[in-house]
Amino acid sequence: MQKSEYEDFSNLLRVTHYAIKKATGIENLTIVQEESSRHFHLWFFPWTQYVVEKYGKPSLAKIREIMADYKNQTIGEVKWKELEESIEMIKQYSHEK
After folding, report:
1. What is the number of structural domains in the chain?
2. Nearest-10 crossing angle of helices 77-94, 3-24
3. How far is CA 6 from CA 16, 50, 94, in A?
4. Domain that holds residue 57
5. Cα separation values, 64 from 11, 48, 82, Å
6. Do 46 and 24 form a contact (C-beta atoms < 8 A)?
7. Stretch 23-39: mean pLDDT, rounded?
């Protein structure tokens, strides 16, 4: 990775971390680089109060189980709206820094 690429990547991490935490009010955010893919995946996993209550304290080992559970769940219109609003807030906060 070139120095300029590293600086851009570091800035992306910093800005996204800040925006997600500010938009969601969470304390813990785990950043994971997905290793089983042929291309680059970066996950920002927010440990919401609900997730902590259901699965326990933040742990990298628990993320795959949680993601598998979420993949099998459906969400209703209200939850989709909340998700859309969170995404918009994250976008707005990412432009603050």
Report:
1. 1
2. 130
3. 15, 34, 18
4. 3-94
5. 26, 16, 23
6. yes
7. 82
